[in-house]
Inverse folding.
């Protein structure tokens, strides 16, 4: 396999990983928010959660940022753990692995 083919397959793996990770993180964040609304109904605008629903875009944004952070850390760990630096495209490796000077 050439470097470009390996990079292509690695990118496909990263896409699938990011989709699954994003769904899991967003589900966890939304689940925690729903538990908070049930546990403290007075704080979040009663039992219907009217105030909590207005914060939904910010909650989803926080979940997205958390998922992106976890993704970058996991992918850089995979590249270093399996010594893929020389097997993948140099631009891809530079995007994820930050070497300290």
């Amino acid at each position: 396999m050439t470097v470009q083919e390996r990079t292509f397959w690695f990118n496909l793996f990263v896409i699938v990983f990011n989709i699954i990770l994003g769904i899991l993180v967003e589900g966890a964040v939304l689940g925690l928010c729903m538990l908070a609304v049930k546990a403290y109904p007075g704080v979040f605008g009663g039992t219907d959660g009217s105030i909590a629903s207005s914060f939904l875009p910010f909650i989803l944004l926080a979940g997205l940022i958390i998922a992106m952070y976890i993704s970058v850390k996991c992918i850089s760990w995979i590249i270093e753990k399996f010594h893929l630096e020389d097997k993948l495209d140099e631009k891809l490796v530079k995007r994820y692995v930050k070497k300290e000077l």
About this structure: The chain is about 75% helix and 0% strand. Helices lie at 3-39, 50-54, 56-81, 90-96.
